[in-house]
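Bench notes, bay 3.
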Amino acid sequence: MTAIAFITHHDCTLHRVAAHHPEVPERLSAIDDRLLASGIGILLSHYDAPLVTREQLLRVHDAGYVDWVEASAPPQDSDTMVCLDEGDTVMTGHTLTSARRAAGAAVLGVDLVMSGEASSAFCSVRPPGHHAERARAMGFCIFNNVAVGAAHALAHHGLERVAVVDFDVHHGNGTEEIFRQEPRVLFCSTFQHPFYPFTGTEKETPNLVDCPLPRGATGADFREAVQAHWLPALEDLCPQLVMISAGFDAHREEDMADLRLVEDDYAWVTRQLKDLADRHAGGRLVSCLEGGYDLSSLGRSVAVHLDALIGY
């Protein structure tokens, strides 16, 4: 069996902001602990995330934006905090390196599955990325990790059909904004609505499949939306690569949102996407961590996600 790649880096734990902020380094520790306890960790091939290059970033972000982020970064030995938006997307001394590793992980994941060294990959990284637009940081996100990976697949590997699917509780507005006019990318998403960032309800181009879910929606509602809307569009695309923005903050134990998914729902959707990748993309699938802030449910959900990718 071809390896499942698990890509992370210690640098991703060094990004830490205010004590009350939900996007904490312990998110990655919770995942590591659960994989160790479940035994799944020994079934994975472990890789260090590289630093993303400027060329790779500029495929999805404006040069002026990248320059601004780099200029805004405090020195690594500084206690300074810099807000990049209205207050929840913050840089401290190690944030820029963490963000570069997070985006670089998606690039490495694509390279591994395209070379056949891995059948699929999971990027256990932070900060998350799917809210970052071409020229705007928001929602804890600085660089759009999954978009950087998808654009790398198009530009470097010459793919013509890439699927990006997003099951975070928040709409992946940044990924949608970046790929809105890119017919080679199909973007499918489920998310709570109305809810931050209050986007995703107006279909603008044929390559966007947005499925807003009302407050209190259950796993059955989620599965119905995926079966009715995602899967037919994905089958029509016949993707050469499947990429996932894997947000686990729609879990019923999360106190930041109001969807009611459980681990079985994440396992189910992962199996659907793995089967799709097996049929059309030679199994090539890259998953990037997005949300998930309740540490216990995050660890359990990632474990079943990876278990489904392994195929047990």
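Next record in the batch:
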Amino acid sequence: MSKKIVFLGCGSMGEAILTGLLAAGTAAASVTVTVRRPERAQELAHRHGVTAIASHEEADANTQAVAGASVVILGVKPIGTAEMCREIAPHLEANAVVISVAAAVSLGQLEAALRPGQPVVRSMPNTPLKVGRGVVALSGGTSVDEFHLAAAHQIFDGSGVVLDIPESQQDAVAAISGSGPAYAFYLAEAMAAAAQDFGLSAEIARVLARETVAGAGLMLAEPGADAATLRRAVTSPKGTTEQAIATFDEQGLPGIVLAGAKAAAARAAQITAELESK
């Protein structure tokens, strides 16, 4: 991708996307990043070779950056996303694709803050993008065609798996893959706590839990892998693992996971409503 690409805001998630984009072959010279602090701008420019502008030094950094851009990634917090859209709207090329990575900000909110007809894509990435194992769900707005979606795919392809979904499923995706890494980390915490309960040291407990969860994740990432099949392969009849799984079922673990995911989705919908009321 040789056209101009702009990141407005570049925190840890934005930098993960940027890293994957550059690793996939995009020229650093075609990328411009805006951040608030000069030291962060210098850090990004030095680390990645991109053009980085600090808004604390140049007040018009954002509008200056989007001039002539073909893709603009909004990396600001949800509360500031619509305001950012209004700021840059008059300076965008008519066919520039605007991609939001902000959770709970609807396509309707984004489109209302931009000029009519501006192509907008809503994304839901997750933190494993930082290690090239992320998953990203994309939903196109009313003015998005196959060309615009393809451009959005190219932004994320270097960082993980990219899926196209209707916007109505964004909250569900947020509850499963968006919040999902925290569920896996929580499981590792619980496993480490259980190991300590058996009398193992805290350090050994952490290593056992961390490496087990990480290793299982790598197995699950193999082509054609299926979670249920992998589970059954290590669950010998009348063995120790079978007893553990049976206990998890008796204690209602699947229902607990479902309840947590529903709570996450409900909170996402609530945040969307709160943003729309502002």
